[in-house]
């Protein structure tokens, strides 16, 4: 089955339970939004799916196309088809954006390749990269920059979106803080996401506090997280309701979680 299936997931940080049984299934080609006020556990979910060692899974399961995601190492998760936006958050000295992407694409397309074996051919890779950059309106010069070295928030997003477009993952989880991103960055992220959904049938989970990015990436399914539980589910109308009324009504309706 082509789906990312999160079932009754419980996650603790330093012994304190943060996620208290989260269930959410994303199928291929679907766009889901997970929204919720600050502190509701949104980032905890993305860190847990990433396999961050500080986030202890205390219950439940996550299946990626039927395979147990929680037993996989981070790189195995990527090879199995899961893209996590901030998987490579730090600067890597001497590694350009193009270089980094060539390694990442090789690893995904040739999962059994050993370290030191051939990368995908340079000409083929360059051609593909140029086409994707062109389509996303990213200056070709950007590929020669050193990865994350002094990148602005917008440039980090650019690198992330390029990575998404080149890797063409089966599923992508994007934790969009939306902090400090200008409208051009929001548009670029959205275009990149919409492109892989349409072309590759990528299933997407956008995690966000703010509705702004959801004006550009239109989710079919919206889930509201509060106090570590999904307390409301609906369609895109929920985004509009949250934009208009904020989260107070959600807290009032679910006092135990609030
Ligand atoms: P959100 O992304 O929705 O704002 P988080 O997942 O970041 O929420 O946080 C959920 C809860 O977990 C909050 O109460 C927060 O204080 C707590 N928390 C997050 N990270 C840590 C941590 N490293 N140590 C202890 N508590 C944490
Ligand atoms: Mg937060
Ligand atoms: Mg967060």
TrEMBL record:
Pfam families named in the record: ABC_tran
Molecular function GO labels: ATP binding; ATP hydrolysis activity
Entries under CDD domains matching the protein: ABC_FeS_Assembly
Family note: Belongs to the ABC transporter superfamily. Ycf16 family.
InterPro entries the record matches: AAA+_ATPase, ABC_transporter-like_ATP-bd, ABC_transporter-like_CS, FeS-cluster_ATPase_SufC, P-loop_NTPase
Protein name stated in the entry: FeS assembly ATPase SufC
Gene3D superfamilies recorded: P-loop containing nucleotide triphosphate hydrolases
Domain ABC transporter: 4-252
Entry keyword set: ATP-binding, Nucleotide-binding
